[in-house]
Every structure is written in C-alpha cells, then in structure tokens.
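Exercise 7b. Backbone tokens:
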C-alpha cells in the first residue's frame, strides 16, 4: 500500500512555530532550530555592529557606508523562507527599507554564525539556496575555533576566497574597503 504524500509546510506553519525556535521553510519542509545560544548571539551582535558602523550609513565617519545591514531578517526567497544571522543589501538595490515583516529581495551578502546544531544545515541547505538566489558573498563564522571563512559566488556554487581566525584584522569581500577586527567577536 503506497504511503500518503507528505503535506508541504506553509508560511502559516512558520508563524505558528514556538517563539523559542527559529522557523525556516526549505523545500516545503518546516525546519525548527533552537534560538541562538548566548555566545552565538554575542558573535552575531558584535559582527553586525562592526559592519553597521562602517558600512550601514552613507555618511559614516568610520567607513564608506552604502549598505543596508540587518540582524536575523526573515527572507522569502521563492518558496523558501530563511533567517540568516546577518544579511546586507547594497543601498542602490534597496534604497529604502520596506514596511513589511519579511523581505523578498535576495541580499548581496549573508553571514551565518555556525553552531553544532546549525552548521550542517547552514552549509548543506542554506548555501545552495543562497547561490540559487544570486547572493554574491557569504561569510561563515565559527565561534568554537574562532574562524571566518569568506565565500564568493562562482557560477552555481561558492568558492572559498580566504579563511581568517583569532585576532586577525580582515578586509574581506564584499566589505574589503574597511578593516574588521575579529578579536572582539570571540571576547567573552
């Protein structure tokens, strides 16, 4: 006897997810993950702060500006719903933030803070979806070994441009016009 077809998850399932979980929709499947641990959240907050301070304002005294940078935005990319830790759009592509609960415009950059519970999903599910949507750069930040991997879209997949760690000072695409310090990311 054939099994019944699996019911595809919908945005209503995302909205009904428990508040203590991050709900994402990939290939019709609802993916629930725990909210980030404190160390994960701290790394994301500090990286977002550095990026925002240098790139988030066109008139920033500390950097070139030119970007809209958001922490954990909800992205509706085709039929998939993703929540990257950090996403950024060049200001010319998003001159004004929409008044909406989510964004449909694929970002130019995504940053994922890896953790034992999310690393496989981030690498095996999110990266291909970001590539299919034309997200030009992805950074994978891993607090445990204190590393940053800088990836660039190369055709249909990502290519590793560089890897950094510890107390490195980094000028990495797409934010190569200003230096970012990694040491504050790992501070406890």
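Sequence design result:
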């Amino acid at each position: 006897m054939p099994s019944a077809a699996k019911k595809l998850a919908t945005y209503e399932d995302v909205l009904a997810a428990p508040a203590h979980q991050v709900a994402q929709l990939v290939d019709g499947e609802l993916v629930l993950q725990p909210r980030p641990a404190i160390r994960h959240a701290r790394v994301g907050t500090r990286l977002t702060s550095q990026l925002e301070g240098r790139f988030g304002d066109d008139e920033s005294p500390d950097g070139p500006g030119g970007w809209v940078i958001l922490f954990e935005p909800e992205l509706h990319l085709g039929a998939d719903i993703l929540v990257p830790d950090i996403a950024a759009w060049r200001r010319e592509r998003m001159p004004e933030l929409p008044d909406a609960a989510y964004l449909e415009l694929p970002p130019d950059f995504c940053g994922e803070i890896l953790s034992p519970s999310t690393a496989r999903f981030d690498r095996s599910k999110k990266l291909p979806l970001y590539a299919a949507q034309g997200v030009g750069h992805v950074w994978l930040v891993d607090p445990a070994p204190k590393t940053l991997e800088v990836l660039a879209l190369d055709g249909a997949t990502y290519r590793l441009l560089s890897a950094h760690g510890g107390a490195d000072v980094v000028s990495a695409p797409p934010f190569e016009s200003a230096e970012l310090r990694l040491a504050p990311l790992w501070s406890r």
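Instructor comment: The chain has one domain: 36-186. The longest strand covers residues 157-165.
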